[in-house]
Write a structure and sequence with these properties.
By secondary structure, the protein is α+β, with helices and mostly antiparallel strands. It has a domain at about 1-40: YefM-like fold. It is built from one helix and three strands, in the order βαββ. The protein has one helix at about 5-25, and strands spanning about 1-5, 25-30, 35-40. It has a three-stranded mixed β-sheet with strand order 1-2-3, with helices on one face. A hairpin with a 2-residue loop joins β2 (about 25-30) and β3. The protein starts with a strand and ends in a 46-residue tail after the last strand.
Length: about 80
């Protein structure tokens, strides 16, 4: 792992970031000899499309269904208030 003082990193920032991207080697930035930050390369994720293929089974008819029960009109419960007479 390369180590740079913050002032040196500031002067060479873009070139060092490109080096990290190309080589995959981490870079540590220090301030007064103490670690301040670490630059690590971004790992590209593989293709996500179809990652869940084959993980689910469809049982029964998925084209026709009865949604009438699910979307029945809402009927509020009767009021429990007492009338004052």
């Amino acid at each position: 792992m390369k180590t740079f003082a913050v002032s040196e990193f500031k002067a060479k920032c873009i070139a060092e970031l490109k080096t990290v991207q190309q080589t995959g080697e981490e870079l540590e930035i220090t301030l007064r000899g103490r670690p301040l930050a670490r630059v690590v390369p971004v790992r590209e994720k593989g293709r996500q499309l179809g990652a869940q293929a084959g993980s689910m089974d469809i049982i029964g008819e998925i084209i026709a269904s009865n949604l009438d029960d699910d979307f029945a009109p809402f009927v509020p419960p009767p009021s429990r208030r007492r009338s004052r007479a």
